[in-house]
Amino acid sequence: MKMAEDLDSLVAVAKTKIGDIIQKPKMTEKLLSKPPFRFIHDTISAITAQTGFGEGLYSGPELDSAAITEKQAKLDYLDKIFRLVGICKGSQLEVRSTKVVQGLEAEFTNKFFIALAEVCVDGNLDFAEAVRRTLAGENPGEKGIPLKRVSSYLIVVISFLTGSFQL
Asked: For each of the chain's 167 residues, which pLDDT tens digit applies?
């Protein structure tokens, strides 16, 4: 019974966090309790369209959920986004694409949705660098979290304005 309670609370959190970012697909308890591949794909696509997170990660047939019919293509699709979110979080996510495709371990899929919702609105992350590292085959935690760089000009201006600039 504890697993069901955990899933219910994860579904509630995922529903709120993802629902705050996108309107469609609708985050329902039914879909989040056993998320089908198309729902996951549509959610990721909507988040990318809304926030820019994951832009460039997918191309060609991967952009159309109806075109992804083979199990291996679904696994590859999920593995990419799981790795991307893991790179942005700084560690491997606790989710397995094989279980997600089978409709199992919905609690881990909801933990993924929660992590996705957190990273896609993090203004400190360099999304393009994260995608580049994902496509290059990097694993989460290998090189740190891809943060935006502050230009040296900006550092000088801030130092000057705060009075900490010295020649």
From this structure: 455 569 999 999 999 999 999 999 999 999 999 999 999 999 999 999 999 999 999 999 999 999 999 999 999 999 999 999 999 999 999 999 999 999 999 999 999 999 999 999 999 999 999 999 999 999 999 999 999 986 555 556 666 677 665 55
Whole-prediction pTM value?
0.87
Helix/strand/coil (H/E/C) assignment for every residue in the chain: CHHHHHHHHHHHHHHHHHHCCCCCCCCCHHHHHCCCHHHHHHHHHHHHHHHCCCCCCCCHHHHCHHHCCCHHHHHHHHHHHHHHHHHHHCCCCCCCHHHHHCCCCHHHHHHHHHHHHHHHCCCCECHHHHHHHHHCCCCCCCCCCCECCCCHHHHHHHHHHHCCCCC
